[in-house]
Amino acid sequence: MEKLKVLVADDTLVYRKILTHAVESTGLATVEFTASNGLLAMERIRHNKLDVALLDMFMPEMDGLAVLEQIRNEHPHIAVILISGRGPDNASATVRALSLGALDFILKPEESDANKSMEKLKSQLQALFAQIKIKKLSSDKESSALTREQTQKPLSVALPVAKERTTASLSINQKRKFNGVDLVVIASSTGGPVALEKVCQQLPANFSIPVLVVQHMPADFTRILAQSLSRKCQLPVVEAGEGELVRPGKIMIAPGGLHMTVQPGKGASKVIKLNNSPLVNGVRPAADVLFESLAQGCKRDRILAVILTGMGNDGLRGVTEMKLHCDCYCLTQSEKTCVVYGMPRSVAEAGLSDEAVDIEEIAARINRLVSGGQ
């Protein structure tokens, strides 16, 4: 199988060598070119056939954001992975990059153990490259099928057809009654920041249900994400804090680097609890941790679970538990609108998805279900 052709752009020679070695060690890709600044990176991209660009966030001449914007405009088929440092400035730029169409980001290694750092980089890149190859193969197959269809079929007059429903599991929705919602929970990973923006922006100012979000991100990044979403949404969006009450009409995002759970408070109230217990599904925060806490502590609640784009199967175990112990209805993002159809696929293939919905329609479905409509 042909390997992905990669450009590595970083202004530091040491990091260019580290990234090149990590890319080559995945066995899925080869570094065709390197670049020490953004202008040189664009020159490489314009004159060569490439599949992936690994871009340092801050480079001379042109920074990673400027290069990303040009790639999206001129070479939309190229997948862009950002190489980010830690800290607020990096987090802010990275969240902006994700909203502009970057596939994902990886943090520059800071482990004192060089071998451990390299293995971590290799593992992250391996997972991303695998998803890029799957998308590329699917796209090539669709193009080939379309070409065969166009060359083999005689010309015919196109007749009007009924508009296809965005919900893939209509029959399930018709049988499964869900009258109202007490809590909305959302899980997302790769491609999640853009998907979250599309969903949360469409929730109206009078939306009266609490929304809890688990997006796989490191510390600092979730705070910046919350601030970015709050500027664009009609509802307040915050990074959740220890001991905060879960309030109606408020979107609370689990802090990067911490698991978020919900515990019963005084009366009918619910309280956010945070902890740094071990990684679950290789991540922290993990959706499974939040969902399982709801299954244990909110057994009488009507919970609407929304599983958006992301790698892996985080959320599967938690949705299973909520289906067993709560009145839980589950929406999964449709395959065709996912950046990575991993988390939604795992839930759908387990038979736990009540509907598969295009990302553009998810907010409308949430609003309808919250209002008691089907």
TrEMBL record:
GO terms for biological process: chemotaxis; methylation. The active site is at S189, H216, D314. It catalyses: [protein]-L-glutamate 5-O-methyl ester + H2O = L-glutamyl-[protein] + methanol + H(+); L-glutaminyl-[protein] + H2O = L-glutamyl-[protein] + NH4(+). It is found in: Cytoplasm. Residues 5-123 form the Response regulatory domain. One of its GO terms (cellular component) is cytoplasm. Pfam families: CheB_methylest, Response_reg. Keywords: Chemotaxis, Cytoplasm, Hydrolase, Methyltransferase, Phosphoprotein, Transferase. Its EC number is 3.1.1.61, 3.5.1.44. The modification 4-aspartylphosphate is found at D56. Its main location: cytoplasm. One of its GO terms (molecular function) is methyltransferase activity. InterPro entries: CheB-like, CheB_C, CheY-like_superfamily, Sig_transdc_resp-reg_Me-estase, Sig_transdc_resp-reg_receiver. Phosphorylated by CheA. Phosphorylation of the N-terminal regulatory domain activates the methylesterase activity. Residues 177-373 form the CheB-type methylesterase domain. CDD domains: CheB_Rec (cd16432), REC_CheB-like (cd17541). Belongs to the CheB family. May play the central regulatory role in sporulation. It may be an element of the effector pathway responsible for the activation of sporulation genes in response to nutritional stress. Spo0A may act in concert with spo0H (a sigma factor) to control the expression of some genes that are critical to the sporulation process. Contains a C-terminal catalytic domain, and an N-terminal region which modulates catalytic activity. This is Protein-glutamate methylesterase/protein-glutamine glutaminase. The lineage of its organism: Bacteria, Bacillati, Bacillota, Clostridia, Eubacteriales.
